[in-house]
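lol ok so funny story. i was supposed to be doing the assay writeup but got distracted and ended up predicting the structure for this chain instead. priorities right. anyway since i did it might as well share w the group, maybe its usefull for someone
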Amino acid sequence: MSRSDFPPGYDDSRAPLYGSGGHPANPPPSYGFPPYGGQPQPQPPGYYGPPQPGYPGQPGGYPGQPGGYPGQPGGYPPPAMPPMPPIIPPTIPVSHNDSGDGEGFAAESGWDSMSVRQAFIRKVYMILASQLLVTFGIVAVFTFVEPVKEFVAKNPAIYWASYAVYFVTHIVLVCCSGPRRRYPWNLILLAIFTLAMSYMTGTISSYYDTKAVFLAFGITFVVCLAVSAFSFQTKVDFTKCKGLFCVLGIVIFVTGIITVIVLSFKYIPWLHMLYAAIGAIVFTLFLAYHTQLLIGNKKYSISPEEYVFGALTIYVDIIQIFLFILQLIGASSK
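and the output, tada:
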């Protein structure tokens, strides 16, 4: 029996796996790495060796190498375009000038007293503050928590389901005075509407950089504060221009549909920026219009029974301003 049939001795077992210290009958394996000055050795089966031909358009390598995905620097896949904001026209109340029983408008004399007006405004802004707190809390989670960002990116069907809920509840609250005025159904519908709108806002925000979200939030806060202060102090009566605001609502609705159709075929940054700029301006004007309807010191005002309607209109204006500013910042940075 030869020596090679026995287990290696003490000296042989301590020999390094690679190098010249192995047994002459069992030379160390070489996996394609040539010794100094030598030639490459044959590779064993199953060894993948040096970089093999990789992704399309790549001479041989990995993502991040030149020539990866066509047209993308660094070989990474192209970023997904975030969903467009809801293309629903702004809320415009229907005028009823008889006995203060309007679904949206009431004449200025419809206010019973100054105390009624102050209580109404206080109630509307308390509801509005709750809505904004929920919405921006969800936006913060969707922006900072990476697993949540990955979840919403992989499940776009939930976004469109929330859009359907948003659309239905919005139509019910705007067009049906019964559910809108009947407690507690009005608050339940408003809560469902707020959660759906919050999910949509958080989903859109998750596609943008954290700095862009913070910048959009800061700009929205300053704009809304300035518009509200202006609406309380100015002598200009925006409530007289209901026809103009109807036209603006139709324009932003049609423009949104056209923009979504065009961008679904080819992403055009300047078109996205133009649509976002128009939307931000239009909803800023609507915020001033709805704020004056809420205050009640102009030609028309919202009936004091319509606290849900008042909170709904201003909430939609603020969220839409935030979304359009966020898209404007995000599109300009690409």
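The CA atoms of residues 80 and 207 lie 8 Å apart. The mean pLDDT is 75.
back to the writeup now i swear
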